[in-house]
Amino acid sequence: MIRELLAAAAIAGAAIGLAPVAGADNGRYEGDVPGMNYDASLGAPCDNYERFIFGRGTSGQAEACHFPPPNQFPAATTGYWVISYPLYGVQQAGAPCPGPQAAAQTPDGLPMLCLGARGWQAGWFTGAGFFPPEG
C-alpha cells in the first residue's frame, strides 16, 4: 500500500514538474529582429547600444540596450537594458508604420522608430528627443 502511494506521488510530482517545460514556448515572438539578445535583463549592463540593440527579458518583454547620457556622473562605461516599444521586425526607412510607440530595425541592424506620417525612421529616442544616425 505504501509502495503504491509513493509510486503515485512520484508520478504526480514528475508530471507537475515537467508541465511548465512542456507548455513553454521557444522564447521567440512575432516581430523579433535578427541579432536579438534573448538574455536581456532590465537594468543590467549591455554593450550593443549602436546596432542590433534589441533583446527580450525572461518575461518576454521587448528591451533595448541604451547608453546613458554623456553628462552622467560618474561617467558610464557601458549601456543598460531598458523597456522597448513593441517590435515590428525589419523595416525599410519611410515605409508606413502602425503608429507611435512602435520599434523596428533596419536590415543592417540600426534601431527604428515609427514617426507617424514620416513612417519608419532609423535612430534613437531619448529623453532629449529623436536622434537619427550620423552620416
UniProtKB/TrEMBL annotation:
Residues 1-24 form the signal peptide. Keywords: Signal. This is Secreted protein. It comes from Mycobacterium attenuatum.
